[in-house]
Amino acid sequence: MADDLSAVAHFLYEAGTLKHARRTGWWMAGVRDPESVAEHSWRTSLIASVIAKLEGADPARAAYLAVWHDTQETRTGDVNYLGKKYSTEADPQAVTADQVAGMPEVLAAAVRELVAEYEAKESREAVCARDADKLECMLQGIEYKAQGYENAQRWIDNSRGRIVTETGQRLADELLSQGSLDWLRTALGEKQA
């Protein structure tokens, strides 16, 4: 391979910072140690594949879009909805272009296209990935509320209201009908409370 991979290596180190970058909106709900952007992105990707499969879209593509959807936050940080009111919103596509500069063009172009597709909100897979982003936030809110963070209800309600796919809506309703540890009780063969 003749292509220089130094820019790719730089990006991989940069991407690792998302393991330490906290999702800032949860601080307003009183969560002292909220999930990281990387943790959010992982579960969002998983959810995207589930929604896409059940919606008849390409689950691998939806997961691929979701795994890249917040990578720009290595440079911008996680700006919550209130913060966006006061700051100029960075264009995810422009940030991505800077991030992939110097990478082999076949890779750089693929990443730019992924981010553009996600931001355009037009493909079935992008819609599924965006729903997964909202569903993951809702699910995290349910888990935080179960831990005693009552203010997480706002995030649960707002996220639920933004889900557009039938599968996403049905899954949201199912998640809201269960307790956050019902899966464990089922796995252990215990009766539901």
What would a concise description of this structure say?
The protein is mostly helical. The protein is built from twelve helices and no strands.
Return the string of H and E elements. Answer: HHHHHHHHHHHH
- Whole-number mean pLDDT: 93
By DSSP (H or I, 4+ residues per run), the number of helices equals 12
Distance between the termini: 58 Å
The rough form would be described as: globular
Would you give an account of this structure?
- The chain has 193 residues and is mainly α.
- The chain is built from twelve helices and no strands.
- The chain has helices spanning 6-16, 25-28, 37-55, 59-68, 73-76, 81-86, 92-100, 105-120, 124-146, 153-161, 166-177, 182-187.
- The mean pLDDT is 93.
What descriptors fit this protein?
mainly alpha, 193 residues, globular, 0% strand
Task: Give the SSE map.
Elements: H1 6-16, H2 25-28, H3 37-55, H4 59-68, H5 73-76, H6 81-86, H7 92-100, H8 105-120, H9 124-146, H10 153-161, H11 166-177, H12 182-187
